[in-house]
């Protein structure tokens, strides 16, 4: 089967700093991938390049057969992004937020309303649908931002530190939503510091360091999480980012 | 970047020579001006031979900023950003000199330092726009986004210039007509006289050369600054 | 185009729900007029002087209040990273610019409708040609807002954005202010549309040129 995402020779620099050195990456449809790495390894930059927010300096990305440089607009229709920022307007209600973004994706009105009801149910916010988001708690906003990312039924879901700010209940709801996506064969790519959770959810683990991919295995090939942690610490130079490593476990 | 230091010195030397020639022509080569009734005009008119070339050069400078900004956005390279910055800085100096020479001349001719006249006012607006441009550059730290943000303003700022001119002209006009007008004393030759045209031409060339030299030195300056930064980085 | 309208509707819905920006803009523009009428207190009895002062005061009030509003226009998009969320949507960047320009203009019109009566009262002024004045205000405001929206997006990521915006904006809107003030002055003294045709033409040219250029280069202002 053709990969849904194929990145070739991706480089991205900010001024003199090379955030991504040379990334080759293929991801199959329905796969769920976790990306780890110390702070400054280029995880977020990679996610931003794959999700069309920033253009690579060199190299190209093909998503579902569409060239990102030629037609980034069509690529955007296929992807959803959950970030540690919520992308929500505080002045609008939960329903209005979802409606606005649904319209931005060009969704048809009647389908959209149905989809909004369904999603609000999934994230447990149906009762608060017509309250202003500004009055929501951090966890509720985060849950709504999950619904926001899924409103247009994306085929690929990117997640940047999705667990930030999620309380126990929200994290559970989040994982339920993610599992529900499996039957639609939605591809999931997650950047995380939380190895425990990511290992439960994902079937492929990637480690990045200094703008390169240094480790890429299927979860089932890995003996146990202790094994992976050991491999991880041997790959990463401790002195460059001791803090980033320590808050992994 | 564009020139090695040898060529740069050469162009500086040529500029110096042409500049001296231009100054000599203004003060010693030009015949005396006579007004319509045949009286000799005082020599305040001589500043015109500096004023017009300086004004032309400042417009040229901002045109360079405009073009460099477009190139910067099309292929975001450091090179065009440095060109835009250098041209803008030199251009601001020239735009300021336009106002100074214009005011001196206005004082001698009309008795006021400042008159709200389209070309002079446009120059003032121009100066304000490009001072804002330089301010904007200072407000952004990250070099890449600074280049991009400045380029957007470099384009929109230049587009506003002809509109400023049109609107100020609508407002009021008292500036002497450049060609065919009588303010310069047409019976004494006006601008039709060969010696006057020649002087003006030489001055124009001198100031454009001066601009080119200054921009090259400014670019060089920026390159060296970068080299030093680079040395600092590689040391640590 | 439809998506621009959705963006504008979203902005307006948020704004008219809280009226936060609208209130501060109206109050500020009224304050400007009050300050001017206090400082020109002695002259307000003389009709010919008022005729010459009032148009300038009106436009200064508009420009100041507008700058205040514009400085917040993209700040609200930056909160929670909404602008990035918008950039993730399959929407042309120009459509974002158009949408923002529409909502900013409409908010500005609302402020202006509330400001003009205050000017009439405090400067003891009467307007003969309401339609003509409305036309001038609409064209002048559009010019001001097309540039202002672009610069608002441009300055939102700079340090000291509240200071940068007016510094960048004022010299660029001089070509709008001049014909707008002139035309307002003429129309208020029993002028006719035909008397201000050259001013109107200039305003239209300015609006079109800056909208076209803004539309073209807006994508660069919100790039990462």
TrEMBL record, chain A:
Annotated Gene3D superfamilies: P-loop containing nucleotide triphosphate hydrolases
Coiled coil location: none
Family: Belongs to the ABC transporter superfamily.
The protein's name in its UniProt record: Sodium ABC transporter ATP-binding protein
Species: Methanolobus halotolerans
The keyword Transport appears for this protein: yes
Alphabetical list of InterPro entries matching this protein: AAA+_ATPase, ABC_transporter-like_ATP-bd, ABC_transporter_ATP-binding, P-loop_NTPase
GO molecular function, a single term: ATP binding
From TrEMBL, chain B:
A GO molecular-function descriptor: heme transmembrane transporter activity
Chain ranges of the Cytochrome c assembly protein domain: 6-172
Gene Ontology biological process terms in this record: cytochrome complex assembly
Pfam families: Cytochrom_C_asm
Coiled coil: none
Protein keywords: Cytochrome c-type biogenesis, Membrane, Transmembrane, Transmembrane helix
Name listed for the protein in its UniProt record: Cytochrome C assembly protein
Organism annotation: Methanolobus halotolerans
Automatic annotation (TrEMBL), chain C:
Listed name of the protein: Heme exporter protein B
GO molecular function annotations of the record: heme transmembrane transporter activity
Chain's role: Required for the export of heme to the periplasm for the biogenesis of c-type cytochromes.
Keyword field contains Translocase: no
Any GO BP annotation: cytochrome complex assembly
One Pfam family cited in the UniProt record for this chain: CcmB
Principal subcellular localisation of the protein: membrane
InterPro entries (alphabetical): Cyt_c_biogenesis_CcmB, Cyt_c_CcmB_bac
Species classification: Archaea, Methanobacteriati, Methanobacteriota, Stenosarchaea group, Methanomicrobia
């Amino acid at each position: 089967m053709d990969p849904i995402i194929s990145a070739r020779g991706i480089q991205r620099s900010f001024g003199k700093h090379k955030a991504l050195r040379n990334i080759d990456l293929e991801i199959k449809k329905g796969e769920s991938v976790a990306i780890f790495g110390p702070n400054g390894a280029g995880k977020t930059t990679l996610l931003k390049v794959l999700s069309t927010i920033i253009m690579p300096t060199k190299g190209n990305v093909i998503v579902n057969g569409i060239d990102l440089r030629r037609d980034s607009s069509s690529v955007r229709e296929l992807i959803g992004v959950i970030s540690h920022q919520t992308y929500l307007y505080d002045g609008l209600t939960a329903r209005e937020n979802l409606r606005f973004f649904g319209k931005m994706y060009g969704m048809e009105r009647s389908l959209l309303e149905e989809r909004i009801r369904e999603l609000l149910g999934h994230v447990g916010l149906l009762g608060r649908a017509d309250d202003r988001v500004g009055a929501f708690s951090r966890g509720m906003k985060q849950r709504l931002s999950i619904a926001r990312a899924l409103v247009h039924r994306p085929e690929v879901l990117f997640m940047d530190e999705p667990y930030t700010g999620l309380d126990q209940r929200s994290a559970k709801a989040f994982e339920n939503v993610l599992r529900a996506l499996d039957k639609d064969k939605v591809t999931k790519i997650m950047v995380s510091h939380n190895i425990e959770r990511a290992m439960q959810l994902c079937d492929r683990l990637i480690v990045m360091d200094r703008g390169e991919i240094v480790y890429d295995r299927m979860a089932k090939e890995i003996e146990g999480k202790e094994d992976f942690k050991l491999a991880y610490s041997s790959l990463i130079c401790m002195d460059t980012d001791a803090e980033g490593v320590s808050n992994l476990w | 970047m564009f020139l090695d230091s040898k060529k740069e010195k050469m162009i500086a030397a040529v500029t110096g020579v042409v500049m001296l020639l231009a100054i000599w022509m203004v003060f010693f080569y030009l015949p005396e001006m006579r007004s319509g009734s045949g009286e000799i005009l005082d020599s305040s008119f001589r500043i015109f031979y500096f004023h017009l070339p300086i004004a032309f050069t400042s417009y040229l400078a901002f045109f360079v900023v405009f073009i460099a900004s477009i190139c910067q956005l099309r292929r975001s390279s450091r090179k065009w950003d440095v060109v835009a910055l250098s041209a803008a800085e030199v251009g601001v100096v020239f735009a300021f000199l336009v106002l100074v020479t214009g005011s001196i001349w206005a004082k001698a001719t009309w008795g006021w330092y400042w008159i709200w006249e389209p070309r002079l006012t446009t120059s003032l607006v121009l100066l304000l726009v490009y001072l804002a441009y330089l301010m904007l550059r200072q407000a952004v730290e990250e070099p890449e986004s600074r280049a991009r943000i400045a380029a957007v303003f470099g384009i929109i700022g230049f587009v506003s210039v002809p509109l400023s001119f049109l609107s100020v002209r609508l407002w009021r006009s008292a500036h002497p007509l450049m060609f065919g007008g009588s303010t310069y004393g047409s019976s004494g030759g006006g601008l039709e006289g060969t010696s006057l045209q020649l002087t003006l031409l030489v001055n124009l060339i001198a100031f454009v050369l001066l601009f080119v030299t200054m921009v090259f030195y400014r670019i060089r300056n920026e390159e060296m600054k970068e080299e030093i930064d680079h040395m600092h980085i590689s040391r640590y | 185009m439809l998506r621009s309208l959705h963006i504008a509707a979203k902005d307006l819905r948020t704004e008219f729900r809280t009226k936060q920006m609208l209130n501060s803009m109206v109050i500020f523009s009224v304050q400007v007029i009050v300050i001017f009428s206090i400082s020109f207190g002695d002259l307000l009895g003389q009709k010919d002087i008022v005729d010459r002062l009032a148009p300038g005061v009106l436009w200064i009030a508009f420009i100041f209040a507008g700058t205040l509003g514009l400085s917040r226009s993209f700040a609200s998009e930056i909160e929670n990273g909404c602008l990035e969320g918008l950039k993730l949507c399959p929407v042309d960047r120009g459509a974002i610019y158009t949408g923002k320009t529409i909502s900013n203009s409409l908010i500005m019109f609302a402020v202006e409708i509330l400001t003009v009566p205050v000017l009439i009262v405090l400067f003891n002024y009467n307007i003969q040609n309401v339609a003509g004045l409305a036309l001038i205000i609409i064209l002048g405001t559009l010019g001001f807002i097309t540039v202002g929206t672009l610069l608002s997006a441009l300055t939102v990521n700079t340090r000291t954005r509240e200071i940068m915006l007016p510094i960048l904006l004022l010299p660029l809107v001089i070509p709008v202010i001049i014909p707008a003030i002139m035309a307002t002055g003429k129309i208020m003294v029993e002028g006719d549309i035909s008397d201000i045709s050259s001013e109107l033409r200039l305003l239209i040219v300015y609006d079109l040129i800056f909208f076209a250029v803004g539309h073209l280069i807006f994508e660069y202002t919100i790039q990462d």
